[in-house]
Write a structure and sequence with these properties.
The structure holds two protein chains of two kinds. By secondary structure, chain A is α/β, with parallel strands linked by helices. Among the domains of chain A are: about 210 residues, D-Maltodextrin-Binding Protein, domain 2; about 170 residues, D-Maltodextrin-Binding Protein, domain 2, CATH 3.40.190. In chain A, about 40% of the residues lie in helices and about 10% in strands. In chain A, the strands form four sheets. A six-stranded mixed sheet of chain A has the order 2-1-3-11-4-14. A four-stranded mixed sheet of chain A has the order 6-9-5-10. Chain A has a three-stranded antiparallel sheet with strand order 8-7-15. In chain A, helix 19 runs antiparallel to helix 20 and helix 19 packs across helix 21. Chain A starts with a helix and ends with a helix. By secondary structure, chain B is mainly α. The longest helix of chain B is centred in the C-terminal third of the chain and has 45 residues. Chain B starts with a helix and ends with a helix. The chains are: A alpha/beta, B mainly alpha. Chains A and B meet through strand 2, helix 3 and helix 13 of A and helix 6, helix 13 and helix 14 of B.
Amino acid sequence: MKKIAIFALLVGGLSVLAGAQTPKPEWLSKGQYPLTKEKVTFNVLMQSVPNVTDFSTNQFTQWLETKTNVRLNFIMAPYDAGAQKEKLNLLIAAGDLPEILIGMNIDASTEARFGSEEKIFLPLNKYINDPKVMPNLNAWLAKNPTARGTITGVDGNIYGFPEINECYHCSLQQKMWINQDWLKKLGLKMPTTTEEFYKVLKAFKEKDPNGNGKADEIPLMGATDSWNTQAEPFLVSSFILDSGMYNKMKLLVDTKSGKVSSILDQTAYKEAMKYLARLYKEELYYNNSITQKNDQAKQLMAMDPAIIGVFPSGYPGIMIDSVAQNALWRAFTILPPLKGPNGYSSTPLSPAGLTPNRVVFTKALKNPELAARWVDSFYSYDFTSRKYWGAEGTDWRWAKPGETGLDGKPAVYKVLSKGNDVQNIHWGEGGINFNPAAYRFGLETTPGIDLGSPDGLEAMLLQVTAKIEPQVRKDVVILPTVKFTVPESEELQLLQVELERYSEQQRVAFETGAQDVEKGWAAYVKKLNDLGLQKFLAIQQKAYDRQYKAKK
Amino acid sequence: MKTDVLFQGFLQAFMWFWAIVILYPLIYVFSASFSSPHAVVSGQVWLWPVEPTFKAYEAIFNNPQIMIGFRNSLIYTALGTVISVVLTLLLAFPLSRPRFVGRGFFTWMLVFTMLFSGGLIPTYMVIKGLGMLNTWWAIVLPSALSAWNVFIARTYFKSLPEELYEASTIDGISDLGHFFRIVLPLSTPIVAVIALFSAVGLWNSYFNALIYLSNDTLFPLQIVLRNILILGNIDISMVQNFDAMVRKQGLSDLLKYAVIVVASVPVLLFYPLIQRYFVRGMMIGSIKG
């Protein structure tokens, strides 16, 4: 025993000496390795990752086993959420419970059912709250107080360890891209208000910026199905904060009073509809945008010469191939949020990159404390680097002094090998991801990298996102993820389906001019209330208060 | 005479129209698999390959997952078909003999399985109880015997003349001998039909593999295929390795069509070989003698 302790001290001392040359990263694994003296095996239901050949023989799996003395017996589940749910329900119904579930996309209603109702998932509060068991996660939650509300279930218990992936550019994902070559050619300035934007679109349409003598330009185009490719939320945000295409009920919370509201029945939304109808009527907004899929948009984008002036999307690669269409790729730049007629401007700030229930323990787990310590290891830069990139020294290394990261500050790590399409070295995006903003920014980047090159993508996104960040409003925020009890969610679902369907239908009717905004507005608001908008808001308010008020 | 020409002309035009409607998607997928992904995405491919390349096929044959899946699918199909044909014939023959005691009972047992099934979870528990989870047997055994195929075979056997049986019995042959030496040689069409039904079923089977298998090295091609096709739907917020993402997206665009070709070619090759039995066998089985 003593010998081991002395040995450990020696090794520890040596590694401290070795590490002294470079500044130590903030988040390193804090467990005592190996975590257990005798080898322990966990049965893990694991989401498969298409570019990992075989998890059981994977190099990272082997490293993990040697390091922690925890062996994993993998039960592989499909990659997509629908099929996963089927497999999970089957395993639970057949009483064939795995001990740990990783990456199974457990949503709030599954959590409520198997957690607080059937007690199949273990509550994890005591492990998360104990800094001796989970030092890293505990410290991270202490630094991010709102995160606790997001991962807490309706009964006050936490049933899953979260995935942490603070993607800065995704937190401001509603972006509009404008062809700056066309602006230059027509001698126009970057528009800053909705009126200027209207004039720019009109010029794009009429003044033949692509120079082929034909009026074939499409000033503004969107698509219905890809990452933030609908144009409406961006335009509506110049009148009132629109939470984006994925939040159809457009719910907001007032930061002072904590009141939940929807923009759908508000006068500013009405003004926005009028503006949209105007763009649509003059065909400045490509009329097929309301129905077309992104695949069709990509084909329009690929026309030669280019015919698209402005398009929305979370990042331009959704419509343009940065390698094959690099010239076009370079032509587009960010269009910052516009000011509306009243000087209002906004852009939605998505809640921090936190996904609840990435890892769940079931009641079959025999040694939950050890498992919790094992999970905590992943909330560290050393484990996450090995998991995502591969072996230290060959696939990545810690940054040396003088190397800078994406944000220009000292780097944390440098990637040495870009890896293969299909590999068996690391888990890639599988398993437990821990990518706080500082880690993502800490990727060593050549200063002054060409932002228009495919390699400069992340640096480019960082730069354009910084440009739109000042437009985030302080008075209202998007409603964060709210969890409901089983009866609440049953009632809510009925209301929500009808409300979403009707409001969507009406938005299109207003926009296309099928229904005059001024004339139809009163009837629209009345119908929303008849369908139960106020009741819907009341349930949301109640759930929001329960989950977040107490935690503040 | 004139109406004949008109009728024939119309028939020809109609058939050509349907042939084109059915062939076009096949040709499109085939051409797209040989074109550069950029040409496919930008809609330049409509009939023949544009910027022809073998890159997609190279990527497939260098991808261990696809090759393992392909191998597994071949094994499941071959093994499953043999088991299925043997079991079906051995059950159908006694059921076709009027002398067989309990024929009605066994027939009703079969009909019962066509009307009612145990449901997913009990079936899963049976498979688990038999220790077949995560083995080849979970794919080839549960679907080995289809009541439908047994009935087709039984009806076919019934259509063979009873005199054959009498003649061979007089010559002193046993029941088994009669089956193997007289009935089987006369039954190639129905054997071909059953083999085709089960082979295509096994080759395309996805759901059984999904729920009974949990080891990547056992997955059949259909599961690998699905994983590759949904690779294209990348959650960008997850991505730190942009380079890998761009390549992954390209890979998915590139592989999509080629993988479909690779997954359907074996079945397409199989069809013409036994098609002549196919039509005959179906017809014969369907007329009661």
